[in-house]
Predict the 3D structure of the following.
Amino acid sequence: MSLNIANCPRCGKIFAKGIKDICPACVKDIDLEYETCVKYLRENKGATIHDVSNETKVSIKQITKFIKEGRISLYNAPNMAYPCEICGMVIREGGMCDDCRKRLAKDVHVAKEQDRAKKEDELRNKQAQTYKTLDK
């Protein structure tokens, strides 16, 4: 068994990498940030993600991560939402808004159609280049 040493992506300190990808000090800091956010949300149920970030000094990115991890529930926070990963529009579930999801699905469909058409053209060209014999 080898010791897996890494630099913490959050603070840059060297640590023995185990279950977590960040150092123990950063794990503790993130847990404190989480507790601060949860406490603020309990006291301010109508808060938005910007309100929470401004009042707790926790980044929107970190609050979004708490939501996606299921640590912060949006069930009792009617005004709480986070930005779409593509366009930044405010959403309450998933990683993308409906418009970006539809655009991605359309782009995938178009790419599949182009790939199918290209394969058909290649097959047609290959068949056109082959010699055929006539039986007499």
